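On clarity, I found the account of how folds are encoded harder to follow than it need be. Since the whole study asks how a given chain folds, the encoding of that fold should be made plain. For the editor and my fellow referees, an illustration may be useful. An entry of this sort, consisting of the sequence and the corresponding backbone structure tokens, reads as follows:

:::
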Amino acid sequence: MKKIISISTLILGGGFIGTIMILAAQKSNKEDKIQLSDLTFFKGQLQGFHIDYKQSTSPPRLKYKFLALRLNGLNQTMGVYKPAQEYNDILSNIKIGDTVLIYYRQHSQHYDTFISGENFNSDIYQLSINDKTYIKADQKKSDHSKGNIAATIGGVFIYIVVIIAAILKARQK
């Protein structure tokens, strides 16, 4: 009986984790098919900017660096995120009052929170400041696609490991 419970727990736990990874990859894959015309467009003046951080909500509680942009006429702070977390190319070329054009996914005002407690929206697909583009939708989609592939492979790998472990456990005397 202990063996059956142990094998069942292994299969259920591993299957759950594998399924979550694959479902997350599928959800992200749908987001990659978004066109700029599907997103909210905003053009405004830069009111302020600073570097801030967000901590992930799931283990291993990683800390991510963002560039926070406050724009006149927009009711939420925009959190610019780049996978390399390097923003000198933007910071060295912007100043308050510059014209910012963004395409982003609209969320409630309380979408996510910086470590400092400030709410922000980090779903920026394209960012241009003074006619220079810093984030392109195609690159953002490419970055998502790499994560989708890794999550799918990871989910399938977990399934395989769980099946092998269950078979080995079932064969033990």
